[in-house]
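As a representative case, the lines below give one protein's residues and fold tokens.
***
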Amino acid sequence: MKKRTLALVAVAGLSSLIITGCGKSSDGSNNTSGNETNLTENAEASATTDFGSSLKIGTNATILLTAPAAFKPTVFASNYLQGWTANKVEVTITNNGSAALETSSIAFASKSGANVCTDILDGDNGINGAPTKSLAAGASETFIIGVGCDAKAGDPLEITATIGSDVVSVKGNLA
């Protein structure tokens, strides 16, 4: 029994040394704050158009955003603040390539001049965000994105779509 207790103490001591060895200094680690808005919000667009016109994004895809339409978010909507202007935009992505396109890699950002905008998700209004599955070669997919802005109807609205290093911008006005 004494040998067994001694073995357990030895294993516990060795385990504690191994675990504390994992907590060494993080010198050389990525110590950034994790805020990478430059990748989506501040990236320079390679092409710009108005709502209702399609743009090529990436090497084998096109994207079309319809004119914004006002909607009333339900009580279950996320990211919506009372008093903000809420708009929804229908997005169609077409994969013109010969391989599947990962639609989850497409990021959207919006702004209204200097005013703050956020993405709204509201399943009761059919606004579930971008798809998360692959889009087959030659296929298209249509979905609705929601935008809430601390702005008024008629103020400018710009939505950017980013895939990889390609950024396109669609401009118009809040409905």
Summary: DSSP finds one helix and twelve strands in the chain.
